[in-house]
From TrEMBL:
A biological process term (GO) from this entry: negative regulation of type II interferon-mediated signaling pathway
InterPro entries for the chain: Otopetrin
PANTHER family to which the protein is assigned, alphabetical: PROTON CHANNEL OTOP, PROTON CHANNEL OTOP1
Protein name: Otopetrin 1
Protein's organism: Neovison vison
Keyword Cell membrane attributed: yes
Basic and acidic residues composition-biased segments: 511-525
Listed GO CC annotations: plasma membrane
A GO molecular-function descriptor: proton channel activity
Keywords, sorted A to Z: Cell membrane, Hydrogen ion transport, Ion channel, Ion transport, Membrane, Transmembrane, Transmembrane helix, Transport
Transmembrane segments annotated in the record for this chain: 72-91, 97-118, 139-163, 275-296, 317-341, 353-379, 546-568, 580-601
Biased composition (Low complexity): 39-56
Amino acid sequence: MPEGQRVLVSPPAAARGALGRVLSGPSACPSPRLPVPGSPGSAGSPASPAPPRGAIRSSVPQKLAEALSSQYGLIVFVAGLLLLLAWAVHASGVGKSDLLCFLTALMLLQLVWMLWYVGRSSAHRRLISPKDTHAGARWLRGSITLFAAITIILGCLKVGYFIGFSECLSATEGVFPVTHAAHTLLQVYFLWGHAKDVIQSFKTLERFGVIHSVFTNLLLWTNGVLNESKHQLNEHKERLITLGFGNITIVLDDHTPPCNCSPPTFCSAISQGIYYLYPFNIEYQILASTMLYVLWKNVGRKVDSQQHQNVEFKFPGVMAGSVLGLTVLAATIGVVVVYLVQIGHSKTKSESALIMFYLYAIALLMLMGAAGLLGIRIYRIDEKSLDESRNPARKLDADLLVSTASGSWLISWGSILAIFCAEARPLYTWFNLPYSILVIAEKYIQNLFIIESIHREPEKLSEDIRTLRVVTVCNDDTISLASSRLKSEALAMDVASLGREMPHTANGNTHPRDGLGREAEERSQEGTLGPAGQPRFLQGDAKRRVLRNIAAFLFLCNISLWIPPAFGCRPEYDNGLEEIVFGFEPWIIVVNLAMPFSIFYRMHAAASLFEVYCKI
């Protein structure tokens, strides 16, 4: 046998076919030629590829329809916001019945559009329509169904509240919850069946229908936030008086009906139950609006032929993260109960409740920050190319993470400034300083971890796919062929072993070892040092287990941190120091504007982390 040659172990048929096409010589690998100006292959020639004129003309109306529909949605949203503001400040001539009539009309119009869309889709159900596999995940539709069920219960309580105060309430107070319940039922059915649709017919009409649905849900979300904030504001003023901030005098109005309810106990229980269910209604409306927004972005979109691999929920191997996360969840519920019981009863108990909350939150945020840093460090060691393909759902997730985190960042920076600018600082206010700093740092770290995670391919794909790079010589000109991705089911041997067994030709024209062997040698060292010196315990299944535990722990921690502000445990209200520095009304405006985004951030981060967990 000539020196420098080895016996090549015969690979499977699929691999032989792929390698044969790669290494078949000049006939399979023509020499690259630079285009000559004026030649048919040059850029300046008439034969150069260019977009068809018909395609350009057809895209112009679609762009105009997208711009017109978005402006229509913004006009509807701004009009609704002004009506909400007018009702909140008791503007003359604007009552709650006017606001509810406007919202009811928007919901009825959306109901008509959804019924038309569902009916048309049923009539053409035999036609194959493109789908966006990234949109409307099953677990997301399941969570929105749970929130929708609680929203319907909330509507039933509102109907009972209307019956109790029927003597002094307008009919719209009873019509609105019934319409909202019907709207919720049909919308959940619509999202279950059509959230993945990529609309290719009646695109202009559908754009207006979908964007109308998006902003209708946003207005319903704003209405729920406003009602819940007014209730929290009333309790906040009573707590501030208990803490000794008696110089804050503002008359609050919760729009209580001017008549008595019969029986009073029944109406009081319903009123309290309504405000405890508002957080779920708020989450339902914002989740529905985000899913509908992705549907709007997909109207007329050309979907890639390569479908994304389905990701599944896998529980084994996450015992540590799950147990620690469930412990945090149970501890959070206990802290919230103690906080709500002690706050507002006396100054000493209120200060103790604030200190308890700050200490617990500081410890939890430090754990979450450390877990996020560990996950980022693993990603830095495990170098892997990111998926940069166009994906409206993934882009929306990343944008929402950053934009909604700014709400809590605004509150935290306000608290930091208040601590340094205040003339008198009670002892419990000093705990707010590390708490506010950790809120900023933890969300920054968590956003980095989630955004990089959702841009990575699932770990299963990285195992099932092998990349074969071959450098060959054709007609004495060296070109580098693009990577040929071969699935492991078709390729029985590893790339490293294939590179070691590949022969060198006698004439020296083909040197696969130069390109393939170097990467194979690097990959063969993973069993000892791993890529870039990666430790043994962060390789393969061990690395995935660590990342899954991190994702599971952060998921449960974000659920835990969603509970306190959603159910009235808000030290930003009860601290009292910020109101003295900034003034009561300016600080309350800041908190009321930023708090809904901060609450939504935790739920959205939990949803994103669940997706990350399923992909690992």
